[in-house]
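Re: that backbone. C-alpha cells:
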C-alpha cells in the first residue's frame, strides 16, 4: 500500500485524501494549525466542482448548508446607494445550482469524510523534504520523521511544500495590485443574508452577513503598486497600514477600521495568483492554491481546489507511475486553471476600480444588470469534464 503525505487540511487536502483512500492509498495529513481551521468568509462551489462534490456524496448535505445571499448593495463614497443586485449576476453563477456555504462548513464536511481512515496530525508542518528513488524522507518541525511514497502540497498560496521543492515564492507570485484585511465585527447594521460594498478609486470596503448571524465579515481592500512586504509578519504594522490608508474616509469606514484594530481574527494578505511552469517535481506534487491560486477575486479558488483534488486522485488511482500520473493530472487541469486565473488581471479587479473613470464604468455596468436579461453562466466555470473514478484498484 502506497503511503502519501498531504500537507494542508483545508479544502484541497481532505478532498484529495478522500479520493486517495478510495483508491487504496494510506494517507497522512499534516496541518500546521493546532486544530481544524473553520473560520473565514463564505465560499462558492460551482460548475465542475459541483460534479466533484456530488461524486463524493456530500452535495445533498451542502445544499442543506447553502447560504443563499439575497443581494449585494453597492454604495458611493458617502454611503448612498448606487444599485442592489443579485450576487450571481456579478460572478456569473447559476441560481438554484451553485452553492454558497460557510468555509468552515465545507472544511468540516470534507474532514469528516476522511478523519477515521487517515492519520491526521495538527500543530505540525513539513520542515525538510529529501526526494530519492525509493520515496521522500520528511522531517517535521516537531522533530518527527517519516518516509512516504509521495508528498502532496495542499498548503495554500504561501505553500511551504512549494518553497521546499521549487524555491522562493517570488518568481511564481503574480501580484494583482491590491492588499486586503478581513475580520469579523458585530452585526450592528442588522444585515440579513446580504452584503454592502463601498468604493472610492483605489479603495473598497465590504460588510457581509451570513444568514442572521450576530457577526459580520468585514473587508478593507486597497490598491498598492507594490506588495507591503514589511507588514506581512507584523500584525500591528498591518493594522497601521490599513488604518492610514482609510484615514478620513466617510460612511462607516471609521467604525470598520476600529473593528479591524480590535479584531482577534484579522487576516491580512495581498491579492495575487500563483503561476508555476509545472506542478510537480519527482515524488512531490501541488494541488489547489499551492499550484495555481487564482485569487479570491475570481470566486473560483474553492472550485479549482475540489476539481484538482479529484483529477489528481484519479490520475494516481489509474496510472501506476507517479511521474506519468502527475503529468496527466496537470495536462487535464492546467487549461481550466489558467482560464479561471484570466478572469482578473493586474490592477483590473472589477469590483475595486483604481480610477474615477473605471469606477463610473463599473457603476454603469452594475445598473445595467438590473435591466438586462440574466446572463448565462461563465463558461470557465464548467469547461472541464471529470472522468469516471475507477473502482478501487490498489
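Recovered sequence:
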Amino acid at each position: 500500500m502506497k503511503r502519501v503525505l498531504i500537507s494542508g487540511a483545508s479544502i484541497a487536502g481532505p478532498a484529495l485524501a478522500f479520493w486517495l483512500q478510495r483508491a487504496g492509498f494510506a494517507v497522512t495529513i499534516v496541518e500546521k494549525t493546532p486544530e481544524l481551521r473553520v473560520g473565514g468568509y463564505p465560499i462558492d462551489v460551482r460548475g465542475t466542482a459541483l460534479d466533484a462534490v456530488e461524486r463524493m456524496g456530500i452535495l445533498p448535505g451542502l445544499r442543506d448548508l447553502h447560504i443563499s445571499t439575497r443581494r449585494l448593495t453597492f454604495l458611493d463614497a458617502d454611503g448612498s446607494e448606487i444599485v442592489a443586485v443579485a450576487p450571481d449576476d456579478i460572478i456569473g453563477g447559476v441560481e438554484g445550482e451553485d452553492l454558497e456555504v460557510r468555509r468552515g462548513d465545507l472544511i468540516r464536511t470534507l474532514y469528516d469524510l476522511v478523519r477515521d481512515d487517515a492519520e491526521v496530525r495538527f500543530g505540525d508542518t513539513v520542515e525538510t523534504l529529501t526526494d530519492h528513488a525509493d520515496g521522500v524522507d520528511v522531517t517535521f518541525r516537531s522533530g518527527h520523521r517519516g518516509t512516504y511514497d509521495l508528498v502532496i502540497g495542499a498548503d495554500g498560496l504561501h505553500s511551504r511544500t512549494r518553497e521546499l521543492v521549487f524555491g522562493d515564492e517570488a518568481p511564481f507570485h503574480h501580484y494583482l495590485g491590491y492588499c486586503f484585511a478581513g475580520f469579523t465585527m458585530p452585526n450592528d447594521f442588522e444585515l440579513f443574508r446580504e452584503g454592502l460594498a463601498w468604493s472610492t478609486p483605489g479603495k473598497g470596503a465590504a460588510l457581509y452577513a451570513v444568514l442572521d448571524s450576530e457577526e459580520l465579515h468585514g473587508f478593507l481592500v486597497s490598491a498598492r503598486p507594490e506588495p507591503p512586504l514589511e507588514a506581512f509578519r507584523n500584525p500591528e504594522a498591518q493594522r497601521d497600514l490599513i488604518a492610514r490608508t482609510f484615514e478620513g474616509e466617510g460612511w462607516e469606514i471609521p467604525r470598520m477600521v476600529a473593528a479591524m484594530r480590535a479584531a482577534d481574527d484579522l487576516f491580512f494578505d495581498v491579492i495575487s495568483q500563483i503561476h508555476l511552469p509545472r506542478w510537480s517535481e519527482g515524488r512531490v506534487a501541488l494541488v489547489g492554491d499551492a499550484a495555481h491560486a487564482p485569487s479570491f477575486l475570481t470566486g473560483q479558488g474553492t472550485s479549482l481546489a475540489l476539481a484538482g483534488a479529484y483529477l489528481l486522485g484519479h490520475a494516481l488511482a489509474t496510472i501506476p507511475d507517479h511521474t506519468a500520473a502527475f503529468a496527466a493530472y496537470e495536462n487535464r487541469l492546467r487549461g481550466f486553471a489558467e482560464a479561471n486565473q484570466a478572469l482578473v488581471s493586474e490592477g483590473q479587479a472589477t469590483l475595486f476600480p483604481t480610477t474615477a473613470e473605471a469606477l463610473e464604468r463599473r457603476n454603469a455596468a452594475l445598473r445595467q444588470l438590473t435591466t438586462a436579461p440574466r446572463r448565462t453562466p461563465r463558461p470557465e466555470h464548467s469547461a472541464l469534464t471529470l472522468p469516471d473514478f475507477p473502482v478501487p484498484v490498489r
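The radius of gyration is 21 Å. The chain is about 30% helix and 25% strand.
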